[in-house]
Automatic annotation (TrEMBL):
It comes from human gut metagenome. GO terms for molecular function: ATP binding; ATP-dependent DNA damage sensor activity; mismatched DNA binding. This is DNA mismatch repair protein MutS domain protein. InterPro entries: DNA_mismatch_repair_MutS_C, MutS, P-loop_NTPase. One of its GO terms (biological process) is mismatch repair. Keywords: ATP-binding, DNA-binding, Nucleotide-binding. The lineage of its organism: unclassified sequences, metagenomes, organismal metagenomes.
Length: 177
């Protein structure tokens, strides 16, 4: 409350920048950026006003989200199981017009396994033979930044912070790198 919302530009396409990997510390604004993108896309699809200086958004047939981390004990599903079921649903239903948002995939397992699963999912989306779904992938796994070197449509971004006098200042601005 009381903070001004920081606007961010997002560009995704199936030819040059299909997947954006977003890193940054907790509370930096990664999740807010994903939500902003989903909401603006949804508003545009239904012909509503879009809160932006300008927007050019193609047709989107599905918006997939994998956010949060919780179990579903009532049906015997661990956090990891919930994450994997949701990720499998996304991967099995992608189209070339899908918008895919992953937020901190792999929280429900060990770091090593989480990195491996996240890498495999990003690679699968990039290499999908029919669907080059536009994807935002927010993560703490900086190892995923290595993917940009091997996959031409993956780009690295971070949500910027600044340190002044041993205090972290959240700038909440999406920057390349």
């Amino acid at each position: 409350v009381g903070e001004k919302y920081i606007a961010n530009d997002v560009f995704l396409d199936s030819e040059t920048q299909q997947i954006i990997i977003i890193t940054g510390p907790n509370m930096a604004g990664k999740s807010a950026l994903l939500r902003q993108t989903a909401l603006i896309t949804l508003l545009a699809q239904m012909g509503s006003f879009v809160p932006a200086e300008s927007a050019r958004i193609g047709m989107v047939d599905k918006i997939f989200t994998r956010v949060g981390a919780s179990d579903n004990i009532s049906v015997g599903e661990s956090t990891f199981m919930v994450e994997m079921n949701e990720a499998a649903n996304i991967l099995n239903n992608l189209s070339s017009r899908s918008l895919v948002l992953f937020d901190e995939l792999g929280r429900g397992t060990s770091t090593y396994d989480g990195i491996s699963i996240a890498w495999a999912i990003v690679e699968h989306i990039h290499e999908h033979p029919k669907a080059k779904a536009r994807t935002l992938f927010a993560t703490h796994y900086h190892e995923l930044n290595e993917m940009e070197k091997s996959f031409k449509r993956i780009k690295n971004y971070n949500v910027s912070v600044k340190e002044i006098d041993n205090k972290v200042i959240f700038l909440r601005k999406l920057e390349r790198g």
